[in-house]
Amino acid sequence: MPTALITGITGQDGLYLAELLLAKGYDVHGVIRGQNNPRRELVERLVPDVRLHNGDLTDLSSLMRALRESQPDEVYNLGAVSFVAYSWENAFVTSDVTAIGVLNLLEAVRLHCGDDPSSVRFYQASSSEMFGKVQETPQRESTLLWPRSPYGVSKVYGHYMTINYRESYGMHASSGILFNHESPRRGEEFVTRKVSKAVAAIKLGMQDELVMGNLDARRDWGFAGDYVDAMWRMLQQPEADDYVIATGETHTIEELVRVAFAHVGIDDWKRYVRQDPAFMRPAEVDELIGDASKAREVLGWEPTVRFEELVAMMVDADVAALKAGW
Ligand code: GDP
Q: Cα separation of 142 and 173, whole Å?
């Protein structure tokens, strides 16, 4: 039975990846941060077979301990301070966790592996936010990186450090450049979930308006359940490498809002939406669209959920949750 260790187990991707690996027969371990972490209960409820280890990406010795206790074949680094807007207000914390945390985990894995640096396979969650002020459209593995936020800069550090450990020490370390990926489990601070939840609440008469930031930005949104499968596929390759994971379709935030309202039968969506500069960012990533042809050719990976279906899935889940009083 293969064994995997996941950081960021309490997040959207950690939960989907744990489910996928458990279904494949893995022994799954997760690193969980902090005393009385409020999301521990969620992990224990959704994936009770995952074994949890206390640890923190900023604490090298805790990572060494988690590796020793779990003895993994594969390590997935999904832990990060991941909300772009927050990263300006907390640039140091974001850099500590999202940038230096990758170095800590790579170093812990390297030390753990001893004489055989490729005996543990490593996955780094890189991000399309690294493309920032895009230098090429669509974006691919070779596109010049130009991050536009402390979060993006931190992800660039982690990305290149992963490549460096692969090239310097011969580690089997791969990096997935994942474009935005969403689901009913997405945090409510992210735009898709903010919209799906508000649309559900407006439809049920529980909320009057939706206050938004920039409606002109474009994103390439996929389904998180598809994207964790790409992570796993990367670690099954004989050689470690970097891959863009994206749908190749891009939509504006305004389209997202319109499609979400239309799904509950509301066409005059502008009545409910107000813009507020408070939700605008100091620097914006205007347009993201990924070219995942390398992943398609090498990994045999394809997205299965398209934009409209994703929005419908998220709105339906929020309507059901609100009706059930969650
Ligand atoms: P990101 O791509 O990782 O920053 O993912 P987000 O879901 O946080 O934001 C996606 C885009 O939606 C960005 O271009 C934001 O500027 C834009 N946006 C517009 N209004 C909002 C809002 O109210 N909340 C969030 N989170 N994003 C918004």
A: 17
Structural domain of residue 91, as residue ranges?
3-181+221-245
Same domain for 87 and 60:
yes
Atom of ligand 1 nearest to the CA of 149: 4
Which tokens go with 44?
């224990």
Summarised one tens digit per residue, pLDDT across range 153-201 is 999 999 999 999 999 999 999 999 999 999 999 999 999 999 999 999 9
Q: CATH number of the domain that 57 lies in?
A: 3.40.50.720
How far is Cα 259 from Cα 269, in angstroms, rounded to an integer?
9
- Which atom of ligand 1 lies at the shortest distance from residue 193's CA? 7
Structure tokens at 264: 């509950």
Cα of 280 from ligand 1 centre, angstroms: 8
Q: Respond yes or no: is residue 118 known to be catalytic.
A: no
Q: Please indicate, yes or no, if residue 175 is contained in any of the structural domains.
A: yes
What CA–CA distance (Å, rounded) separates 78 from 49? 19
